[in-house]
Amino acid sequence: MSRFKIIRRDLPYKEIIVKSFTFIAIVSLIVYFLPRDGKFNYHFSINKPWKYGQLMATFDFPIYKDDAVVEKEQDSILAHFQPYYTLNNDVEKESIAKLRASYNTSLHEVLPSTDYIRYIEQTLREIYKSGVVSVDDLNRLYRDSTKFIVVVDDKEGNPRITDGIFTSKEAYEYILSSNTTYKKEILRQCSLNEYINPNLTYDEARSEMAKADLIDNYPYAIGLVQSGQKIVDRGEIIDAQTFRILESLRKESVKRSESNIQKSLILTGQTGFIGVFVLCLMLYLQLFRKEYFNHIRGLSLLFTLIVFYCLITALMVGNNFFNVYIVPYAMLPVIIRIFIDSRTAFLAHTVTILICSVVLRFPYEFIILQIPAGLVAIFSLRELSQRSQLFRTAFLVLLTYTVVYLSYELIIENDLSKLNTGMYKCFAVNGILLLFTYPLLFLLEKTFGFTSNVTLVELSDINHPLLRRMSETAPGTFQHSMQVANLAAEAAVHVGAKSQLVRTGALYHDIGKMENPAFFTENQLGGVNPHKKLSYEESAQIVIDHVRNGLKLADKNNLPQAIKDFISTHHGRGKTKYFYISWKNEHAGEEPDDELFTYPGPNPFSKETAILMMADSVEAASRSLSEYTEESISRLVDRIIDVQVAEGYFKGCPVTFRDIATIKEVFKNKLMTSYHTRISYPELKTPVSRRKRGGALSGHIGSTS
């Protein structure tokens, strides 16, 4: 007993850890992508009207020059910039010393006279005086179109023209050709490259410092806007001057938010704001939808959609990319409504909109537009089974945006010329993007393992290969499945269950019978019963196998899990009572192996699977009635369902006694309608028989005529 208590005590802690980790992960992910670069989220263009309300300066800021002007003026300043090069006098000394040493050892044997060595030494001194640079440094000079450089010799800088500066190759050619008296063939034998090395080196530190001094003294601003000064009003055309002021305000807003303290405060505020709303959503799930915490796919879909829309909004606002009103936020509640439920869809939509609003300049306007649009989307699309429904929803959402925004503009503006027509174009794009919900559903189904009504409608088509095969190989089972589908769907409508799901599940619940159709009564022709040659255990196993075979066929044909649930639960953990009771009758006093006569299950776990179990049993039993009267049908329905309730098949289902009573009444009415007694039509009598019966009538007619 103590061990059991310890286990029970540990379970809440594990649940708390999982939920806490989920909360921290969601909040951290959203906060990470939110912009923290100030509150300047306006979209504007030159020569276009200002589409927001009146904008006033809340602090003093300079009016910066246009970037193109700044670049042009800075290029003009830098055109006179002189980069710094360091002169290394030791290079010349080492080269001359090396030349003399070579002459004393071996070079004198190559040269015909001492005049050659004097010429080489003199020319080398001229070259080093002009300066020798590397190829990279010379390319830098050409690239920057530099005409002058500053040569630093012993901490003293002197300007020097760049035209006379050599590279190693140019110096080599200069020695060969500067004096025609000396033969090139002889000079080439002197290995002149060994005595030519760069003595001017680019001084990056001094050059960059000098360049920075020039740029630092450059005036970026051409004016000043004072706090409280009006910048622009709604509807005004943004000219070049206003555009520069707005750009200046944007730069200053970003600059003011770059301090670490400012960023820390913004980060703390964002974390608290988002944490509150995510916590509210998780509390709702804990209190009213607790099963979702155990339904990993549903929870993953819910939070993936919320995080996705928050990130899209943050990235668009942070990068000033398009207008957020083109984002189809109404798609989020539509998807959650289709896969989960309406209340969760509305709360998730509200939480998402409130979180997204924190990064916008006008959150109030955003909220009053998105909340009604989400509500209309939920109300207009309770079940998506046709493409036309989505077109209707998109139109209603577009109409809601238009009406709400127009009404809001009429309230805050008293001039029709200032109405923001650009917003209505965004609404139109929003409506078009909302239509992409239809193809997106397929992707979400495959990713998260859900099944939409669109898929269910497609599967319920009797031309589906699996259903068509069943109608050919097991026609009796096919007719039984059709009748069960009608019964179950009607009952689902009356108790608030998913009728399309029940209908589709009913069509496929007995597909396993196609493997051995002759062993099931509805498919037997001419009174031939193959069970007569088998023992009760063997017969029971063949009948039970239709559940296992059905699941194998479902896997082979890629049926969704929702349909497999109906296949596995429509008999639950019940027994093949005919063979079970027959065995006990023949083996009085003995107990059979119950597992040989028991279906693998599990028992129904949802309202829909419970309805199918009832409908399947009632429809099958109704075929054995000797007469179809209101009393016999009512007694049959009550008996079968009451036994199922008594045996505990529905203990794990959210089915109430009121639901069961309603289901019984629906079944009774449907069966009485299906098996009602038709009137017998009279046969046409022969003339002789008419005369025998109609003498008096003929006389009566004759007298009246």
Morphology: elongated
Q: Sketch the major β-sheet.
A: 4 strands, mixed
The tally of domains stands at: 3
Structural class: mainly alpha
| Beta-strand proportion | under 5%
Average pLDDT taken over every residue: 84
Give the terminus-to-terminus CA distance. 102 Å
Question: Please, how many helices?
Answer: 29
Instruction: Record the strand order, biggest sheet.
Output: 5-4-3-6
In words, what does this structure look like?
The protein is mainly α and 705 residues long. It contains 29 helices and 8 strands. It has 3 domains: 2-37 and 261-448, no CATH class; 77-215, no CATH class; 453-674, Hypothetical protein af1432, CATH 1.10.3210. It has helices at residues 2-33, 67-78, 89-105, 114-130, 135-143, 168-177, 184-188, 204-216, 240-256, 260-288, 296-318, 331-339, 342-357, 363-380, 387-412, 421-434, 437-448, 453-459, 465-473, 475-495, 499-508, 536-556, 561-569, 577-586, 607-622, 630-646, 657-674, 687-693, 695-704, and strands at 55-56, 61-64, 84-87, 148-153, 156-161, 200-202, 221-225, 230-232. A 4-stranded mixed sheet has the order 5-4-3-6. Strands 1-8 form a two-stranded antiparallel ribbon. Helix 10 packs antiparallel against helix 13. Residues 1-10, 677-681 and 688-705 have low confidence and may be disordered.
